[in-house]
């Protein structure tokens, strides 16, 4: 894309330069007698080789004929390069794509606290659907434009943005707004590429949460050392899932039904309690979870990473802890608003 745009810009600059040089040259050679309109006309019919007739007579002026020959050589070449560049864009069907990409880039530049997905294969497509279901903005990067076109049609109008390119390159991650992103998912097919993406992501944004896919168990430690907060092995997850289907089918079906129910759209979500929150030190019973959002936390992860399952109303909220809930995206936002509220009742 960048190479094509560079060629078009170069063609426009080259053609404009030839026209300007031609107009100025004819103006000087005519000693100022020819108007700028006549000079422009002479330049255009010369480089276009249409031969409608000269309005400036250089039949007895050697310098004028030499300049015209020079202009024909340079001008015709520049004119043909200009025409061929635009023809290539139109024939290849890339003109609309360029406009679409520029519009998409403009929307991505306005994002904050979004997520970036590198790789839109069979695993990536499920990640996108999950983010759309939970109403979270995501920028999907893939080198296959055909694949992006298919997803663009499927998810038209949803909270998703696309970039064509190879995510191992820093400039692609930067165009996805990695400096302002909340999370990065490295999910390309090769572990070595996920390693590079993880390392680049950590260097470009130290606060970024990075989740990486890993097929080979030997790469797990390397990915963690490169900056991945979590490493997911599809083989391991698949094996655990198959075992669970065998020994606890009802529990598994409960989660499946919950995730697939598009009407209720329930998910297990986490709500962080950040330093400075007015909820720190308060009991869960002090907050009307049921009355305001229709749920109650099912677990609490403390700052030391210990867990409290099925917390009682007397459980107190600590700084840097996390509330675990089951709810839809609206309920999640409701709890987040309660937690971040500066005037929720009295302490």
Description:
The protein is α/β, with parallel strands linked by helices and 347 residues long. It has three domains: 90 residues, Helix Hairpins (Orthogonal Bundle), CATH 1.10.287; 122 residues, Rossmann fold (3-Layer(aba) Sandwich); 82 residues, Regulator of K+ conductance, C-terminal domain (Alpha-Beta Plaits), CATH 3.30.70. Helices cover 51% and strands 13% of the residues. The chain has 13 helices and ten strands. β1, α5 and β2 form a beta-alpha-beta unit. α2 crosses α3. The longest helix is centred in the N-terminal third of the chain and has 30 residues. The protein is elongated and about 105 Å long.
Percentage of residues in helical conformation:
40-55%
- The level 1 CATH classification of the largest domain is Alpha Beta
> Tell me, what's the shape?
elongated
CATH homology superfamily of the largest domain? NAD(P)-binding Rossmann-like Domain
Distance between the termini: 56 Å
Task: Indicate the low-confidence ranges by residue numbers.
Answer: none
CATH architecture of the largest domain, please?
Answer: 3-Layer(aba) Sandwich
Can you give keywords for this protein?
Rossmann fold, elongated, alpha/beta, four-stranded antiparallel sheet, Alpha-Beta Plaits
């Amino acid at each position: 894309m960048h190479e094509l745009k560079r060629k078009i810009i170069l063609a426009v600059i080259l053609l404009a330069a030839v026209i300007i040089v031609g107009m100025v040259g004819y103006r000087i050679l005519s000693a100022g007698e020819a108007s700028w309109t006549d000079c422009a006309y002479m330049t255009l019919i010369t480089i276009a080789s249409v031969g409608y007739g000269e309005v400036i007579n250089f039949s007895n002026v050697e310098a004028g004929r030499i300049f015209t020959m020079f202009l024909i050589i340079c001008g015709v070449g520049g004119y043909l390069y200009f025409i061929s560049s635009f023809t290539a864009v139109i024939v290849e069907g890339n003109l609309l794509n360029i406009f679409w990409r520029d519009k998409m880039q403009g929307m991505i530049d306005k994002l904050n606290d979004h997520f970036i997905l590198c790789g839109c294969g069979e695993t990536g497509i499920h990640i996108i659907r999950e983010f759309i279901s939970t109403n979270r903005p995501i920028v999907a990067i893939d080198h296959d434009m055909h694949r992006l076109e298919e997803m663009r049609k499927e998810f038209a109008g949803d909270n998703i943005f696309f970039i064509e390119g190879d995510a191992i390159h820093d400039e692609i991650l930067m165009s996805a707004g990695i400096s302002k992103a909340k999370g990065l998912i490295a999910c390309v097919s090769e572990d070595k590429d996920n390693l590079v993406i993880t390392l680049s992501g950590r260097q470009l944004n130290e606060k970024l949460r990075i989740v990486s896919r890993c097929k080979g168990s030997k790469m797990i430690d390397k990915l963690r050392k490169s900056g991945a907060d979590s490493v997911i092995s599809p083989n391991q997850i698949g094996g655990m899932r198959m075992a669970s289907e065998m020994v606890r089918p009802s529990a598994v079906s409960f989660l499946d039904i919950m995730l697939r129910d598009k009407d209720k759209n329930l998910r297990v979500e986490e709500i962080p309690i950040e330093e400075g929150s007015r909820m720190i030190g308060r009991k869960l019973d002090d907050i009307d979870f049921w009355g305001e959002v229709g749920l109650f936390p099912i677990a609490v992860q403390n700052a030391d990473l210990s867990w409290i399952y099925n917390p009682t109303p007397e459980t107190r909220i600590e700084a840097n802890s996390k509330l675990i809930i089951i709810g839809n995206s609206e309920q999640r936002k409701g709890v987040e608003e309660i937690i971040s509220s500066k005037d929720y009742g009295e302490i």
